[in-house]
Amino acid sequence: MKRREFIAGLGSAAGWPLVARAQQGERVRRVGVLAGGSEKTQGVLVTAFRDGLAKLGWAEGRSLRIDVRFAAGDAYLLRANAAELVRLTPEALVTNLGPGITAAQEQTQTIPIIIAAGGDVFSTGRVKNIARPEGNITGVAHLFSSIGGKWVELLKDAVPRLERIGAIYNPELSSAVNPGGYVVGIEEAARVLGVKVVRISYRDAVDVMRAVDSFATEPNSGLIVIPVVPNPALRETLVRLAVERRLPAMYFDASFAAEGGLMSYASNSLDLWRRASYFVDRILRGAKVSDLPVEYPTRFELVVNLRTARAIGLSIPESFLLRADQVIE
């Protein structure tokens, strides 16, 4: 994938010296990472975050300690991990996606919470002033809530015969259907394009299989999978079911397309986690949350898996493939 650029502030980290500042006797600074997914799916993202801090001069084991906890999509474990990390009294707590932010906020209103590829904290009301965050949350958003409309447009362009979209989400882990949520944007765009939207909620793999099987009985249908999918097994189930039921599907992260999903449209998660290291660096050097505006990605990547298209009997227009940033063949 091509590296993508982000809004103002991206280059400012370059002004910080890249040499380690830890001197003999200097205290080791502590940072917590609350990952909502599993080590299998998000370990590479945490590594990108660590690499970003290393380039900014922080040396784990000398000047910095990073405590990482993975919840693997378990809402109870996510809350328990948040409580455990807060007890360790880190100077910053890094998390991703809405459930992680909620779990962290339940535990602390004072420790800076840095979003790494998180949801739209403005539309959900978590941050009311993105230029000068007034609470303890800032960082880098992964998506805008309004991106749901773009997912509909792209899916319809790739599948002109599309008449129905199943918007599939986990109500325990997502604010998808709240005002300003992803489903609202999906429904608004679908009305304009003459496409019917069916809301599909699930809590476990059994729910997913029943719902997708029922939805797939009508022709000219497709899926949009909404953040957050809780664990690797359920991710695999969703991708497999979409292929087996010959449902063209849009996903919110490029990793799904790499794993066999038809297509994704999203920002680059690796870049966002690297960018989160800049926020942590600033906090550790004395900046306040209010000094660090929330950032949103300005570029998104369209990834199409042609192997999957062939597997479900879909011929994607050449004009659409030319728009893709990556085509998996």
List the helices and strands and how they pair.
Layout: E1 29-35, H1 39-55, E2 64-70, H2 75-87, E3 92-95, H3 97-107, E4 113-118, E5 137-141, H4 147-158, E6 164-169, H5 182-193, E7 196-201, H6 205-215, E8 221-225, H7 232-244, E9 249-251, H8 254-258, E10 263-266, H9 269-284, E11 301-305, H10 306-311, H11 318-321, E12 326-328
Helix pairs in contact: 1-9, 2-3, 4-5, 6-7
CATH topology of the largest domain: Rossmann fold
With strands numbered from the N-terminus, the spatial order across the biggest sheet is 7-6-8-9-10-11-12
Q: Based on the structure given, which CATH architecture of the largest domain is correct?
A: 3-Layer(aba) Sandwich
Mean pLDDT: 88
Number of helical elements: 11
Give the CATH superfamily of the largest domain: Response regulator
Instruction: Note the gap between the termini.
Output: 14 Å
Number of strands: 12
Question: Structural class of the helices, strands and pairings?
Answer: alpha/beta
Name the helix and strand elements from N-terminus to C-terminus, one letter apiece.
EHEHEHEEHEHEHEHEHEHEHHE
Structure write-up:
This protein has 329 residues and is α/β, with parallel strands linked by helices. It folds into two domains: 10-142 and 268-291, Rossmann fold, CATH 3.40.50.2300; 147-266 and 301-328, Response regulator (Rossmann fold). Helices cover 36% and strands 19% of the residues. The protein has eleven helices and twelve strands. The chain has helices at 39-55, 75-87, 97-107, 147-158, 182-193, 205-215, 232-244, 254-258, 269-284, 306-311, 318-321, and strands at 29-35, 64-70, 92-95, 113-118, 137-141, 164-169, 196-201, 221-225, 249-251, 263-266, 301-305, 326-328. Strands 7-6-8-9-10-11-12 form a seven-stranded mixed sheet, with helices on both faces. It has a five-stranded parallel sheet with strand order 2-1-3-4-5, with helices on both faces. The longest helix has 17 residues, at 39-55. It is elongated.
